[in-house]
Amino acid sequence: MSALPATDSPYVFDATTETFETEVLQASLEQPILVDFWAEWCGPCKSLGPLLEKVVASYHGAVRLAKVDVDKEQQLAAMFGVRSIPTVVLVSQGQLVDGFAGALPESALREFLSRHVQPAEPADEAPAEAIAAPPEPAADAVARLRGEIAAEPDKAELRLDLAVALMRNGEAARAEAELDALPANLATDDRARRLRGQLEFARLLADAPPVDELRARLARDENDHAARDQLGIRLLAEGDAAAGLDQFLAILKADRDWNEGGAKKRLIAAFSILDDEELVGSYRRRMSSLLF
């Protein structure tokens, strides 16, 4: 019997025992990975596979699909306790978070994924002149958006734009008020989640002592993880992202269970608010090497 047809989708790939840690577990720290356990001889697998690929493609990269041939990768199937196929599991943040066995209709697949993942917007190429244009000053953006909201009060997307602009303008309390008033479909938008992270760091910063005081505490006791955590927050706020992330990594290396996994949570939260993809990618890999 022939194998299932290959796919050219950038969101679908074959996973093996050798690649699983890197391409699934570590990759799931950045985006959820759906894992499809299948076999060539499995009839239901042949109906489910194309539906999974279709649904995953509609998420535009917010989730990826890993295909595991259980005949070739029996160790992986055993690791996940696969008793029948098809079996599908969702891996996020290095952990199995949900799954199902058997072939489901497209509507049920979409309902399953929607509980955990929000689709990304399709990537559009911006014109060169738009890329080169300087960013709009935050205060100007706030004024412009208030005018647009007055003209179109029912356009909720404008309020998310306003919340982001208010945060850029240093008006955290007003940004949070706008964020809290968003409808549910926008409250889970990537920009909304990013803004929540920024607001959380702003709150933490309010309680953090000055950098010199924190460094003095660490000089007295290098295992003062609370001081190191606050120092990381301070350094991030002052624009030294790498130095801030280094503090969280140091805690993770010394005691990964400190404060109920607080260092890992802090790193993931920091990744969500940083714009430097190269820096974030580097520190994600370093975090993964300590966790797996």
Helix and strand topology:
Blueprint: E1 12-14, H1 20-26, E2 33-38, H2 43-57, E3 64-69, H3 74-79, E4 87-92, E5 95-101, H4 106-114, H5 128-132, H6 138-151, H7 156-168, H8 172-180, H9 184-187, H10 190-206, H11 211-220, H12 225-237, H13 241-254, H14 262-273, H15 277-291
Parallel strand pairs: 1-3, 2-3
Antiparallel strand pairs: 2-4, 4-5
Helix pairs in contact: 6-7, 7-8, 7-10, 10-12, 10-14, 11-12, 12-13, 13-14, 13-15
Task: Outline the structure in words.
- The protein is α/β, with parallel strands linked by helices.
- It folds into 3 domains: 103 residues, Glutaredoxin (3-Layer(aba) Sandwich), CATH 3.40.30; 69 residues, Serine Threonine Protein Phosphatase 5, Tetratricopeptide repeat; 84 residues, Tetratricopeptide repeat domain (Serine Threonine Protein Phosphatase 5, Tetratricopeptide repeat).
- Helix content is 56%, strand content 10%.
- It has 15 helices and 5 strands.
- Strand 4 and strand 5 form a beta hairpin.
- Helix 13 packs antiparallel against helix 14 and helix 13 runs parallel beside helix 15.
- The protein is flat.
- The two termini are 37 Å apart.
- The N terminus is likely disordered.
